[in-house]
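User: Structure tokens for this complex, please. No commentary.
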Amino acid sequence: MSLLTRNALIALGITIALAGTVAYTVNYLNRARISELSTIEDQISIDTLSLDTQFSLLEAAPCDSVASSTTLTGELADLGSRLSYAESQLGTNNPQVVRLKDQYSLLEIRDYLITKQLAAACGSKPVIVLYFYSNAGDCSNCDKAGYALSYLRNTYPSLRVYSFDYNLDLGALKTLIAVTKVRDILPAFVVNGKQYYGFTSLSDLEKQFPKGALATTTATSTS
Amino acid sequence: MSPQMVAYPFLFIAIFFESFILVTLLSEPARARRLRARGALTPSVAVIVPCYNEASTVAATCDSLLALDYPKEKLEIILVNDGSTDETARAMARFDGHPQVRILHKENGGKHTALNAGIALTRAELIGCLDADSFVEPDALREIIPCFADERVVATTAAMSIHRPKNFIEHMQNVEYIFGITLRHAIASVNGIYVTPGPFSFYRSSILATLGGFRQGHQTEDMEMALRIQQAGYEIGNAPRARVYTKAPRTVAKLVKQRTRWTTGFLRNVLGEYRGLIGDRRHGALGMLVLPTALLAILSGILLFLLMLFTLAHGLVNAFEVRAGIPLSYALVPHGAFDWMYLPTNFLLLFGLVALLVSLSFALIGKRLSKTPGNLFLGLVSYTLLYGLIAPLWLLRATADVTFRKHRRWR
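Assistant:
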């Protein structure tokens, strides 16, 4: 075998080994990402259960749980961002991503119910937005709507936004969709129980909020 | 299929070629060449310095040649003024009457004619060239001579770097040149060199007599000569410790102009008269690996640049669309925590990073091999940040020139 052929074969072997190492590293980092998301979800799950229990225990003074509930909603939003990034890296159909999204959606629904219960018990009037999107390529305005909601949530911290993948095959989510009577015209919003479809602009979306609701929440958040 | 998939085969080939260079560097022929002693042979040598409007540098170039550690009676320097319109003639006059220096003034006819005029004046056994904006280390010639101990070697290249790089563009080119020292040393050990650059390449006078003198060679007479030598079945060596420093373009515009000339010269020579070398097993590494990879490198440089532009434009349009109507105080500020979770760890990026790191390590190896002085830090930074953005400009321009048969002036 000539030196040229020998060196070319060794170089090919090195290249394949390097490609394999890079593929393994990417896979390892993705698994670590999933694992971290799973850990965060477990923690939030425990926190949710704790809040639920706390809520039951403090039936006489349930409003003491409001601070915990607000913190949990913030953690859920952060988890949502991470999950969304993981989904963009690993793909919408990745089984682990789908499992994490199922769990995340359940946590959101649970938090949504607690928020509603607290509002009823404490007489507060939070603005709650249920946002339904799709990553199946059939929702051209979902990215814009999601970014506008991120802006609103950032600007008005007491605004409660819960995002759901409309196409997720999850019983609880399907029940929520049925209960809130949301049709498959995406993006879809349920603002304090009222449905709104499509996204044109931030100002149009803001018009769907109860009058003065955002101003009030601003005042609350900055006081 | 995502557009990024286009990049995979090119990256794979780039890393394969880099791996080949590394393996070849460690192979016996390259190791033997590195261990080669200087020896006591002192054949007669002539160094031709073709000059066209080089008044500011020709004297320093000639001084560096006169300072070469070589028997004075065996070394002659031929300064050829190729019809300069500046003070080159006056600068040369300083060496009038010097026993080692001959001065020739001629009508302007191009670099190849200046070299041929110089060749016609000498009967030296070895004939070297040195661009009039380049300077040599005193031991450079001593490093070159042993390469010719091998009868099959008819030409030899030196180890080039940039003379006192100052700005970012010059530092970037310095790393590129030193990277080239590694590349040339490895490729020479499997006879794959396809250019004998102007700064301090040497030829046996017998081979110049056999093959004929320099030709215009699509404004790359050094490449044409090397390809002619390879086509004739001879070998081109390399002396990695024969240090020569050359001036580099100081601006992006001048650099793009120079490299467009080099790249069009390469394409016109290799796809024209020397097309037969590509894929020819008889020409070993040159035909089977070096020339095909060099052609692919041009294609991949253009494609990856266009892909990057497309991805960037797509991302910008998308970001603009998503942010439309959102207050700038929010839209222009990055949001989200800085966390390893958000590191873009995809295959393309990491594989590209491997290719870049190997390239940078080649520059460090080249510096060590040649014992080139100076700090490479600024060069490595500028090479990493700028090279991938600037190189596609001359690749695109050269490819367009060749495609549309456009010919540009040398200067």
